[in-house]
Amino acid sequence: MENHRVYFRNGQEVLALGQGTYRMGNSSADKSEEIKALRTGIELGMQVIDTAENYDNEELVGEAIRGLRDRVFLVSKVQPSHAVRQGTIITSCERSLRKLHTDFLDLYLLHWEGRSSFEETVSAMLKLQQDGKIKMWGVSNMDVHKMERFYVIPGGNTCAANQVAYNIETRGTEFDLLPWCTQRKVVFMAYSPIGEGDLIRNRTLMEIGKRHNATAAQIALAWSLRLPNILSIPKAGSVRHVEENFKSLSILLTNEDIRDLNS
Ligand code: NAP
Fold first, then answer.
1. Tens digits of per-residue pLDDT, 145-160?
2. In the chain, which residues have pLDDT < 50?
3. Cα–Cα distance between 165 and 194 in angstroms, integer?
4. Maximum Cα interatomic distance, the chain, rounded to a whole number of Å
5. Cβ-contact 13, 228 below 8 angstroms
């Protein structure tokens, strides 16, 4: 499992466990500990770092990846209110690049539908790609119906990822969206894999954790990583949590564990 990889359509492969950053840099938490946490994750090989223009923390992420950019697969997102016209998407991307102190993003996502235009989004993403400002583009919070609307737009079928909520308590997407994405080489990025922290108190996860000498958080993550094409991006604001989460890659859930989790 430590070698559990996810493959993007351009051939790039990454460790299936990355790092989220929502609420980093704007909570009461210690920013230097958050930076240390992200750097620890990178050192461990968790290449993917996920931010967004509306997290208001791209500067912090830029600081965390300083000197390590070549070991990071950097993801940011445009908010829908800026995705109404091609020009505003490009301006948003350039602003993110400046804040992140980098000249390209590995992946740029439309954060959610809102009042965005899918046509303008695709044309801006292709232009950003052509200009070398992003390597790949994708979407977030899109169901199968919305993905199909993207796919009929010229160039829309080059979408590389869809980032959606996915954890043991929020798994409806595995019946339609996950196979849809997997068949089309669209990486399925699982956000809130620890249920925004709530799953650490889940009794079943704790019980299964005892069988593996693991915590509930680790079992939640091992579960999110059990299928191919899933890139799980927990947010952890401390070195201790990052190290703990990384160890979830070594947990192999048994059929009995999966059965207990399903029930
Ligand atoms: P999450 O990763 O499921 O949970 C984060 C919470 O879990 C934090 O409170 C964190 O606390 C805690 N935690 C992490 N590791 C832990 C451990 N080993 N033991 C105990 N607690 C632990 O929720 P999320 O932040 O909502 O989702 C992850 C990422 O997905 C986000 O940060 C963001 O990058 C992305 N996301 C995207 C969207 C979207 O619309 N595209 C929406 C939501 C999230 P500490 O900070 O104290 O470690």
1. 999 999 999 999 999 9
2. none
3. 10
4. 54
5. no
